[in-house]
Each structure stands twice: as structure tokens, then as C-alpha cells.
Batch of 2 targets.
Target 1
Amino acid sequence: MKFNTKTIHGGQHNVDPAYGSVMPPIYQTTTYSQTTPGGHKGYEYSRSGNPTRTALENAMASIENGEYGLAFGSGLAAIDAVLKLFKPGDEIISTNDLYGGSYRLFTKIFEGLGIKFHFVGMQDASKIEEHINDNTKLIWVETPTNPMMSIIDIVACSKIAKKHNVLLAVDNTFATPYLQQPLDLGADIVMHSATKYLGGHSDVVMGALVVKNKELADRLHFIQKASGAICGPQDSFLVLRGIKTLHIRMQRHCENGEKIAEFLRSHPKVGNVYWPGFEDHPNHDIAKAQMKGFGGMISFTTAENTLESAVKLVEKLKVFTLAESLGGVESLAGHPATMTHASIPKEEREKTGVVDSLIRLSVGIEDDEDLIDDLKQALG
Ligand SMILES: Cc1ncc(COP(=O)(O)O)c(C=O)c1O
């Protein structure tokens, strides 16, 4: 099956043996009757499994070219489950430019539990090896990174991970499997904030993991069941529905993204524009090799390069909504320094380029002329 067909049919065999409904029913139930203790039809309690969640997990595994999908109550709950594979003394090497909430989870929760993190600029993947030692257990990659749109070479990271026998996990939230399939490039774990493009309509908070390896899947399923950070059947249904249009939404996000990136670059009141589709983006060739398109996420600074100019600009937007999050059909604008990345100390975030004048756009699927007109009026 090819990708577009998979978004609609992937993993969806016999979803409703009772009546043949085309969409899986929403099994709004906590428990399942048993004929005798242990005599059930595969489900006993909805924390360990629910048929609507299974339908979604199978769909996620299918579109990521994996074998096993696991859905969680949020993207951070999915990352939390990955980190619970490790024990005090273990070390993790992470991209230094990453979602602020991931950084907060790493440094404020798991560092306190004895796991050591190294934050590394992985645009040159060979830098990773400088931090590997016998305690290293995981390389954590976000690409494109949030919010600087840096591109990390997944194949190069996977060669390093395999050489040193450590796991490689890729946060694929920004790219989605429409643009990039990390398991095919050698990653062991793909993670999603399904809240974003997979859900696609800004109405569900959810996380996902997909893996190929059975033993790893079993360990993660155990953590999912034992820690219990699952999502409900109604939300599973909504994300399953979202996935069915992922390919056409992503196509439009990419088309609009390109037009907006080019518009911003030509505007005198705009400073730097960060978008991997530009030929002079530092890792454009890697983006071209590992992604099918460049997506609808763009960051830029104001030419004035001040906090005030950025705040003034985002306040003036009318079609773009000033809000946290990304990946929905509607265009959003965010101010990382005070919003998504406020939990990262100023000196740390500025090292990676997250300056006070940086604005992040999640370009939606509206008419591009309306989006450009909105930016034009806000830039004044
Ligand atoms: C790249 C990335 N990873 C993880 C997360 C966390 O996901 P959630 O908000 O669903 O917990 C986000 C949220 O913005 C994100 O942008």
C-alpha cells in the first residue's frame, strides 16, 4: 500500500465485525465482560487496551512504516514513556534546539531521577560521538527542530547509534510521516505530538510512539499500561479521522509554507527567515534527501530585532491566531521566547537562536493570498 492509501486504510482490517461500519465504533467503555476469569475477547480493561485506541495505534504504525503503535494522553506522556525505559546513571544525548516542554521534562523531571542529558547541536551529526560513553542509552532527535527549523541527518545519527549500540528516537511532530519516515532511515522509535498534524484540527491533545522491534514494543506497552498515561476512545476516534486527510492537508501546508517563506524573505521589515526549503538553509541538502517537502512551519525575526517589534507584530495579526500549538488547519503565530520556549533559560535559548524577536508560524491551509495580506498589514 502507498502512503495516501495507508492514511485511509492502514491497519484498519475488520474494525467492526458486528455491523461492518466503515469507521471503528467509539468503544466508550472501561471494562469488558468475561465468561470465566480470563475468558475475554482480547480486551479486559481500557487502560491496557481499547478497540478504538487499537484502531488508531494500528493506523499510526502503518503510516510510519512501523509494526507497533502506542497512543498516549499527550506528546509529553509519550516522551515520558520512552524515558521510563532508562535508569539512574543512564545518559541521553538530545538535540539542543527542541520543544521547550521536552527540555523541561528532561531537565526538571528526569535529571532529578538520575538520568544525565547532553544537549548537542546535531546539525553536524559527528558532534554526537564526542558525548557517547558506556552509559549512553539514547539519542533524541527532533528534526526539523522547534522553533529554529534546523535539520538533523537521521541516517547519520542512526549509523552512530548502531555503532555504539544505543537507541535512536526521532520526534517527527513537525515533519509527519507524509514528509519523513524515520524508521525507514534507521530510527528505533518515532514519537509524535499527535495534537499537531496527525490530529490536524486543534481539538485533541495526544501523543504517539511507533516502533518496529517487538521487544521494545513490549517494554513500551508495559510502561503504557503500568503508568497509565493513555488517551480515551473519543480522542482516538478524532485522531484516526484526522489521519485520513493527513496527506492532502500536508500537501497544502507545504505549498502555503513555501509562499509565505518567500514572501517573508522579501520583506524589508523581516530579519532572518528559517525554513528548510531555502537552498541556502545550512542543511537544505539533507532536508531534500530525507523529506518529501519542507512543511508549513516557519520562524523569522523582525528586522528591528526587538521584543517589542515582535510582540506588536503578532498582536496585529487577524487571520493568523496568536496561540500556542501548531499543525492544525488554521494558521497560528507564536512567540517562542514568551510562549512555547519560556521554560528554557534565556541564555540557553539564545544560544540556539531563540531570540526575543523570533516569531514562529504554523501556516495553515487557508488561501495563501489571505495569509500574505494578513502578514503584510501586520508588518505595516
Ligand atoms: C516538537 C514537539 N514535540 C512534543 C510536543 C509535546 O506534545 P504535547 O503538547 O501533545 O504534549 C510538542 C508540543 O508542542 C512539540 O511541538
Note: The chain has two domains: 3-243, 247-379.
Target 2
Amino acid sequence: MTGILDAIVIGAGSAGLGVSYFLKRHGYGHLVLERGCIGETWRTQRWDSFRLNSPNIRSLLPGDSPDLSDPWGASTQHQFVSYLESYVERHRLPVTTEAPVEVLSRDDGLFLVATPGGVLRTRNVVIASGSLNCPKRPHASVELPTTLRQLDSSAYRNAAELEQGAVLVIGNGQSGGQIAEDLALAGRSVFLATSRAGRLVRHYRGGDIFNWMTLSGFLDVPRSEFVLPSGKLPPRALLGATHTISLQSLSAQGVVLLGRFVGLENGRLVFGDDLDDHMRFADESSADVKRFIDDYIRRVGLNAPPAEDDPAEVVAPRLPSPPIRSIELATSGISSVIWCTGFRGDFRWIKIADAIDDDGQPIHQNGIGFVTGLYFSGLDFASTRKSGTIPGIAEEAARLVNHLVGRSAS
Ligand SMILES: Cc1cc2nc3c(=O)[nH]c(=O)nc-3n(C[C@H](O)[C@H](O)[C@H](O)COP(=O)(O)OP(=O)(O)OC[C@H]3O[C@@H](n4cnc5c(N)ncnc54)[C@H](O)[C@@H]3O)c2cc1C
């Protein structure tokens, strides 16, 4: 192609589509290039019983009104993909599917976007290729024998697809907690190696927690206020889609709770002495969010029902006594390990100086790249707690597109 486009958006997930919506509203000529199908990550990286934990009314993309039959319901990934497809159709967004961007480079002030169909030239690029679609595994995974099946949470579908035997789930964030429960409900014997992950209740004081977190401004807290002293970001707290899931409730369902997975030593799986700390951390994080909401209710004088106990938070856990610090792998009956240890984005195809750092992650401020005309949308925790979630897209996409259009006009 010889023409020069005003903008190219890379990725047709919620972030890319939100950006495309605003570019279109500004009458800005652009294309959205998607390597697979619309909503590819939701189609290929979720387990069968998955449901979104942002309720329907909070999972709308910009320009859509909350005309929903089940506003507080939790969509399946298939329903959400259908929603994304209808969004593209209704707003007539210029999406090209099966168009992977293989290399993004820069020449003579323009971006060169290389796809199997040819190289496109554009003045601006918005990268919305996802920051949570490449699974991360700790190094300890390479020590495990090949007789053990290892898979990432994104490859897990259901208990029946796994080999007979017990399952070791590693990590108790969003995916780990939900997958451990999915396996326990299917009657599997489950070990859960825990970490310092927070927890959220599903309902509180008569409302959905997502609604309270939105109204109270909890989701708008800037990144600088919750980034860890190490500069790392905390994992997202465990939030069940339809009900609260806690370490206590998993334990009461028969999941064997362990400390952090350390590695394999002399044929034994070794775990840290930190389960108590992890349970305390999750309890405190849940209490912190409730306090934030209580303060808000008090401040604005809302007549909300009093705080109630959540069954998953008050159920007595059945903790192993004494705590388990190691397990003989050969006799454990464990046949599968599911790594629920987080995700990152894959930006290796960006070949532009100052666009990504030594760790392969975007260099940006609130989604605005340091290279003129380069933007990143959908990055987890980019500027606030809401960044990187579906409810965060409308605000972020509007801001980035305003910047892009304003800069191009000047
Ligand atoms: C298990 C899990 C559950 C989650 N549940 C929720 C939830 O319930 N609610 C919520 O708000 N958030 C949830 N999130 C967070 C979620 O990732 C984001 O809310 C949102 O989906 C991110 O959207 P995105 O468009 O940035 O990324 P994605 O949805 O990953 O979209 C990126 C798109 O870019 C495409 N792409 C990638 N590379 C290229 C390339 N080189 N060329 C062309 N296309 C490319 C991909 O195929 C993909 O379609 C969840 C995350 C995980 C991991």
C-alpha cells in the first residue's frame, strides 16, 4: 500500500476497539489490525466455567448505554466476545482480522507496520495488543520432571481434560483461586501454593463490590499510591465472578493450602513457611477495601445497609496440621501443575528505539509513548487501578485519542 494512514490501532480487544470508537468519532482515518479474531484473548485463554468478574453494567465499551436485562450479571467469555463483535458492527469500526503485526518500525517520521499482507505506513500507532495475554512462569518450573504435565492458567479448560490424579495449582490471584475452586467442585484433589494476593468480597453493604469500588473512587486511585516499594505492581486481588472466593472457603472445600512454591529439592516439592502470612494479607486487603467503601458511604451520607458477614470469609478453614512444607512428588499422586503466576504483554515485535525498555515492556507515561505518535492502550495499572480493565477503557481511550488528535492538529 502506498498511502499514508493517520492512525493504526494494533489489537481488537476491548482497548483497541475503545480507541477505534473515539478515532472514528473524531473522523480520524484509521485501521484496527487484529492478529486473530475480534476478542482473540477471550476466545483462546479462558477456562470453560469462566465468567467476567466485572458485572455487565461495568463491562460496556464507550458509546454503549447500559440497556441491559441483567446489569449485575457476569457474562461468560463467549457472551463477551459476541458483545465485542456486535460493538464493531454497530459502530462500524474498521477492523481487519487475521492481520498480525510482525514488525513495527519507524522511518523518516512515519511508522512502518509490517503484516503478512504488506507494509502499511502511518503517522500514529496505538498499541492495544494486551498486557495480560502472555503467561509468566517462575524459573522453578524448569526443575519439574517431564512426567508431570505443566500448563498455564490460559491453557486450562476443565478438570476432565487433565490426567487422572491430584492437581497442584500455583498462585491464588484471580485465575488461581477460581481454577482451584473449579477443580475442587469437579471432585479433584487440589493442592494450592499460595502467594501474597489480596481478596475482594463479591457483595458488600447491599451492593456489588465493583459498583462500590467505582462509586467510592477506589478504582481511580493513582498508580503512585499502590505501586510497591520495589517498583513492582501488586497482583490483582482474587474476586470470584458470582460469589466470594477466599483461601478459607477453598480450604473448607477440601483444597490443601500450602505456602509459596519454592522448587523441587531431592524429589520433594518444597513450600515456604508463609501460608499464615498469605491468609492474613488477603484478610487485611479485603478489610482495607471495605474500610475505603465505609468511609465513602459515611462521607456522602448514603443510607446503605450495615456491613454483613460474607460466608466465604467466616467459614472455618481446614488447614493442614502441622503445615505442609514439602511433598514427596513420586508418592503425592500429583499429575498436573497449573501455573497461575500472572501475565505480561509481548512487545518483542516493536523495533523502535525508546519504545520498550530492557525488560521488553512499554516506555510510556499514562499510555503516551516517548516516541512521538506512539500510544499504548489497555496496559494494566497504567495510570490508576482501573487501567487495564474493561471499565477503564472509556476514560483512557478518550484521553489518548484527544492527545493524538490534538497533537496531530497542532
Ligand atoms: C483470566 C483473566 C480474566 C480477566 N477478567 C476480567 C474481567 O472480568 N473484567 C475486566 O475488566 N478485566 C478482566 N481482565 C483483564 C483483561 O485482560 C482486560 O480487562 C482486557 O481484556 C484487556 O483488553 P486489551 O484489549 O488490552 O487486551 P486483549 O483483550 O488481550 O486484546 C489484545 C488483542 O491484541 C491482539 N494482538 C496481540 N498482538 C498482536 C499483533 N502483533 N498484531 C495484531 N494483533 C495483536 C490479540 O490477539 C488480542 O485480540 C482479565 C484478565 C485475565 C488474564
Note: Residues 275-300 form the longest helix (26 residues).
